[in-house]
Amino acid sequence: MAFKIYTKTGDEGQTALFGGKRLPKSHLRIECYGTVDELNSFIGLVRDCTEDEHVRAVLFEIQNRLFDLGATLATDPSKNLLTPTITQEDIQLLENEIDGMEATLPSLKNFILPGGHQTVSHCHVARCVCRRAERLVVALNMEESVSPDVLKYLNRLSDFLFVLARKLGQNLGANEVVWKGK
């Protein structure tokens, strides 16, 4: 028998964590991993918009780590279940990539607005979703303990996405859109 995508178990507004615990779909934990899933989708969009094979490979790695991170958030913390973990090496990869890109970019002298090229804008959307995911995970951490590496990873990832937007713009020959306040 083929696997069916619908189970009907969530028809009344609840879903199950890994480990079996059921929560309302509006629960903060569900909002956290749902937002990480949304982020993963936007990163896939950015990956599909660039021809740079190195960037594509790094974004693919990030997508896999976000799936790991989502699995951790989707696991009942009261159970002792083995889940993938975010490591210091995962965070270091982001830092190394940021440093490498920043070495080729002009110094930032102004605030910049998202825009200049569709790919750059997609990257900024991913950055904003990442910041929202981070805020939600910080709120969850105030209620239930979350791995510090999960928090660090999301924080560093938003920095990476900001720098990547600049680097992609540079590669595409797009001008940075400078904020002009009143």
Description:
- The chain has 182 residues and is mainly α.
- The chain has one domain (24-105, 112-173): Cobalamin adenosyltransferase-like (Hypothetical Protein Ta1238, Chain: A), CATH 1.20.1200.
- It has five helices and four strands.
- Helix 1 (28-49) packs antiparallel against helix 4 (118-143) and helix 4 (118-143) runs antiparallel to helix 5.
- The longest helix has 26 residues, at 118-143.
- The radius of gyration is 18 Å and the shape is elongated.
Overall domain count: 1
The CATH architecture can be given as: Up-down Bundle
Alpha plus pi helix count: 5
CATH top level label: Mainly Alpha
Helix content: 55-70%
**Terminal Cα span:** 64 Å
Shape: elongated
The helix/strand series, from N terminus to C terminus, equals EEHHHEHHE
Q: How large a portion of the residues is in β-strands, by DSSP E?
A: 5-15%
Strand order, sheet with most strands: 1-2
Output the CATH homologous superfamily.
Cobalamin adenosyltransferase-like
Mean pLDDT across every amino acid position: 92
CATH topology descriptor: Hypothetical Protein Ta1238, Chain: A
* Largest β sheet strand count, sense and barrel closure: 2 strands, antiparallel
Helix/strand/pairing class, anyone? mainly alpha
